């Protein structure tokens, strides 16, 4: 009886999280394009690669991931607010590593479009982006 209540509740929570992610990603000035997704040789883990584009002055809000994020800035100047490290500026051609579960946000502080290639090594089946409360 309890399981029949838990499963629908879990589906609603996951669907709600996906809706929030979609809502943030579809804000004016933010574009997230999934490029590839593959299971890894480590059970329960997957790699997801996403191109993120931000218009000048646009901020992607504070969030975390259920695994590591490896960032390569393709163009522009980004300012990342990383929990425990403060603000970090990363320019085109530079990289940044975000550990699993660490809250962070990003802002395009340049005068042109900013683009990054984000590679995630995450737990399969969990929401990729968890917005901070």
Automatic annotation (TrEMBL):
Alphabetical list of Pfam families matching this protein: Cupin_2 (PF07883)
Protein species of origin: Povalibacter uvarum
Stored InterPro entries: Cupin_2, RmlC-like_jellyroll, RmlC_Cupin_sf
GO molecular function: dioxygenase activity
The protein, known as: Quercetin dioxygenase-like cupin family protein
Keyword tags: Dioxygenase, Oxidoreductase, Signal
Signal peptide span: 1-25
Domain of life the protein comes from: Bacteria
Domain Cupin type-2: 51-113
């Amino acid at each position: 009886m309890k399981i029949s209540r838990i499963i629908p509740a879990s589906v609603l929570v996951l669907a709600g999280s996906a809706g929030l992610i979609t809502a943030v990603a579809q804000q004016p000035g933010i574009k997230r394009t999934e490029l590839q997704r593959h299971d890894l040789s480590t059970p329960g883990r997957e790699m997801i690669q996403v191109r993120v584009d931000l218009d000048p002055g646009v901020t992607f809000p504070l969030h975390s991931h259920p695994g590591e994020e490896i960032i390569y800035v393709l163009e522009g100047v980004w300012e990342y607010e990383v929990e425990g490290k403060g603000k970090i500026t990363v320019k085109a051609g530079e990289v940044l590593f975000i550990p699993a579960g660490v809250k962070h946000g990003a802002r395009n502080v340049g005068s042109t479009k900013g683009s990054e290639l984000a590679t995630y090594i995450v737990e399969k089946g969990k929401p990729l982006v968890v917005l901070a409360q």
